[in-house]
Amino acid sequence: MEYNASFLIVEDDKQIRMFISSSLEMQKYKVFCAVTGQEALNMFAARNPDVIILDLGLPDLDGLDIIRRIREYSQVPIIVVSARDQDAEKIEALDAGADDYLTKPFSIHELHARLRVILRRKETPAIDTATSCNSGDLVIDSNAHLVYLKGKEIHFTPFEFNILALLVKNPGRVMTHSKILQTVWGSYLESDAQTLRVFMANIRRKLGEDPANPKYIITEVGIGYRFAEE
Amino acid sequence: MNRHMITQKSKSHLFQILILLAILAAVSLLAVGIRNIGFPVGNIVVVYVLSILLVTRFTHGYFYGILASVIAIICYNFLFTEPYYTLNVYRKEDIISIAVMLTASILTSTLTSKLISTSKLSADREAQTNMLFQITSAIAKASSVADVAALSVQCLSNLINDDVACIVNSDSNKKIMMYSSQPGVSHIQSTEIDNDRIAQLTSKKKIVPIGDQSKQYGLLCLPLQSPSEKQNQDGLISAIATQILIAMERENFSEEKKLANMETEQEKFRSNLLRAISHDLRTPLTGISGTAELLLYNLENEEDRKLAEGIFEEANWLTQMVENILSLTKIAEGRLTLHKQMEAVEEIIAEAVKHAQKVAGGRNISTEIPDEVLLVPMDGKLILQVLINLIDNAIKHTDQNGTIHIQVNQMSGRVWFYVSDNGSGINQNDFPHLFEPFFIARNANRTSKSGAGLGLSIVKAIIQAHGGHIFAENNDTSGAVFKFYLPLKEHVDDGI
Predict the structure, then answer these.
(1) Cβ of B319 and A212 within 8 Å?
(2) Taking CB atoms and an 8 Å cut-off, how many pairs form between chains A and B?
(3) Contacts (Cβ under 8 Å, ≥6 apart) of A157
(4) Fold classification of A6-123 (topology level)
(5) CB of B458 less than 8 A from some CB of A
(6) How confident is the prediction for chain B on average, in pLDDT?
């Protein structure tokens, strides 16, 4: 991982805060901790961390409010942490601007893997719509609306292309069903989710994916999709 | 009862005829006196007309008035027209006076009797209105269906001065309550009664049902009335029954509302409690497993690492247990709500495989799914949990280099999922109990931590909630197959 990156951990449980911070400090990262939402907002303003790890169940402020308030002036990557049966909150957090989510209990390996993805994304300059992007064998030219797999051009319909481009432009980031549909369709209806699944199946087949073991597009059941980085 | 009434009636006829005869006799005596004094005969006619008036006043009905008129004419003719003491008439003016007297008498008697009956009718109507008003205002204050019954029985009993009973269907435990009241004593009994007692109460009574097409609240048992009363009272009783029904419906509605409110409160409390418990258990478990994992990767000493690994595994097992118990609680309480959408089967399988690969060790996991995308109405999260539970189960019953095969196919409106392994298979004796909660197979792999036997019962509940079914069997060679189907076509709440 990149040296010198700094993290803000917002978590009211002492033990969880401790093991996350220890695991990160062991890797020589700078770590700041906040116990309450208010403290998190103050700490963020004062320390300007590279990534925020945010527990959604805080005693004082709603986690969603914290995301919205930070998003008013900053695009700092935010990973939210929540319980398994809080899917609705996860989706809301992602739609409010969170980059990724972890479900309690999570493994340190998982957390570090997600953080690595985020830091790498931060390192590489934001992908401009005009430029093309590479992801292993996959090359997408946003300008020309062309997709190349292993140097070979593959035909995509405009909708399929837009969905794929949206995911590729946000590698590693979970895009909720509603976010994808709103970006590509301009609207979101529950019934469109079915159409989205069919599009996704077509995209995967065109990319030559094994549907039971996809390499590029990972499904987050009940939440959305993410583009796998490696 | 009937015989008694009939004798009473004939007695009253006799009595009225006696009154009639007495009045006419008295008037005839008076008339004889008047004649002896030497007053004109015209006065005697007036006196007889007066007598008809009196007879009508003290008897009931047209009959006595007309009878009195006829007798009066006979008396007049017999006593005061020439030839005296015969029923013959010689003089023209006598014929006229008799005719006038007869007309006057009949007119007087019919008019008076009509007047009397009208005034009686309006008095009856007033009494009925009053009765209805009293009952309506009494039951307006009632606070429950039983209360309505008690108050109306009390009121009715006081008004008709007789026994009244009301049998109320109580829905809580289908027991029936009875309210009876004796006149004057105002004595109300409220007891549970059986069918024999109901039969006893309803026999030889006027039964008025209280209820409408949708719901029967009970029966009102009133004393039988005489046929003459019947006409008048039927309308009143049906009006009263309607009032009682309205009051009972009102109370029933408010009771139902109260109950619904209470249930909502309890539901809220329970789900808050579950939420709190799950949060309070998950948070420390996350701390324990995370800390143990951290130690596991950082401790130098092999002994210490083993200890940390132990904590890590136990914490994970406990977490799984908490999740399972929470799921089972939801299912047991009927709170398993499905968020059905058209999900692509391949996506769910891919997620399940991703999970399996993390925990499979050296086991080989293979899949076989249809080439075309298969959309099935389901709650994706829950079916994912089903597959994960079945795969975990297969891992538990296979050794390190075992194989697990996941297959999906479509057959006559159903989508079949198969999770098969080449492990130890299912013991014949275990088949009937496989899907029971807390059942643990005899041959579960002892080296791995066994569960509390909740996994398969949760799996079954989730599949059944989807309208599907799960089966377990042994392979031809070795190992077990768990297969389940989900209906392909079903109403999906997709807003279309």
Answers:
(1) no
(2) 117
(3) none
(4) Rossmann fold (3.40.50)
(5) no
(6) 81
Which element (helix H / strand E) includes A16?
helix A14-26
Q: Check CB contact under 8 Å for B347 and A221.
A: yes
What sign has the CA pseudo-torsion B254, B259, B265, B267? negative
Q: Provide the residue ranges of all domains of chain A, joining segments of one domain with +.
A: 6-123, 132-227
Interface test with A, best of B275, B281, B283 (most A CBs within 10 A): B283
Which residue of B lies nearest to A87 if distances are taken between CA atoms? B381
Please, which pLDDT band fits residue B288 given cuts at 50, 70 and 90? very high
Q: Which residues of B touch A57 (CB under 8 A)?
A: 279
Contact between chains at A197 and B342 (C-beta distance less than 8 A): yes
Q: Which residues of A touch B350 (CB under 8 A)?
A: 211-214, 219
More confident residue, B181 or B430: B430
Long-range contacts of A128-132 (CB under 8 A, 24+ apart): A129/A169
SS3 assignment for chain B: CHHHHHHHHHHHHHHHHHHHHHHHHHHHHHHHHHHHHCCCHHHHHHHHHHHHHHHHHHCCCHHHHHHHHHHHHHHHHHHHCCCCCCCCCCCHHHHHHHHHHHHHHHHHHHHHHHHHHHHHHHHHHHHHHHHHHHHHHHHHCCCCHHHHHHHHHHHHHHHHCCCEEEEEECCCCCCEEEEEECCCCCCCEEEEECHHHHHHHHCCCEEEEEECCCCEEEEEEECCCCHHHHHHHHHHHHHHHHHHHHHHHHHHHHHHHHHHHHHHHHHHHHHHHHHHHHHHHHHHHHHHHHHHHHHHHHCCCHHHHHHHHHHHHHHHHHHHHHHHHHHHHHHHCCCCCCCCEEEEHHHHHHHHHHHHHHHCCCCEEEEECCCCCCEEEECHHHHHHHHHHHHHHHHHCCCCCCEEEEEEEEECCEEEEEEEECCCCCCHHHHHHCCCCCCCCCCCCCCCCCCCCCHHHHHHHHHHHCCCEEEEEECCCCCEEEEEEEECCCCCCCCC
CB contact under 8 A, B283 and A222: no
| Interface touch B353/A20, C-beta < 8 Å | no
For B373, the closest of A19, A85, A198 (CB atoms) is A198
- Report yes or no: B280 at the A interface, CB cutoff 8 Å: no
Nearest-angstrom CA–CA distance, A225 and A166: 11
Q: What are phi and psi of A9, to 5 degrees?
A: -100, 120
Top CATH class of A132-227 equals mainly alpha
Region A160-182: mean pLDDT is 88
User: What per-residue confidence (pLDDT) applies to A130?
Assistant: 43
Q: Can you tell me the distance from the alpha carbon of A146 to that of A132, in angstroms, rounded to the nearest whole number?
A: 9
pTM check: above 0.95: no
Q: Which residue blocks in A27-103 are alpha helix, DSSP H?
A: 37-47, 63-71, 87-96
Interface test with B, best of A104, A187, A209 (most B CBs within 10 A): A104
Task: State the distance between the two ends of chain A, measured CA to CA, in whole angstroms.
Answer: 15
pLDDT tens-digit profile of B367-385? 998 888 899 999 888 899 8
Kindly determine whether residue B283 and residue A200, on different chains, have CB atoms separated by under 8 Å. Answer: no
- Tell me, what's the pLDDT at B181? 62
List the single residue in B with minimal CA-CA distance to A214: B350
* CB contact (8 A) between residue A200 and residue B278: no
Residues of B numbered 320-359 whose beta carbons fall under 8 angstroms of chain A's beta carbons: which are they? 323, 326, 339, 341-344, 346-351, 353-354
Q: Which residues of A touch B323 (CB under 8 A)?
A: 84
CA A190 to chain B, closest CA, distance in angstroms equals 6
Q: For chain A, give the number of residues.
A: 230
Q: Do A13 and B286 touch (CB under 8 A)?
A: yes
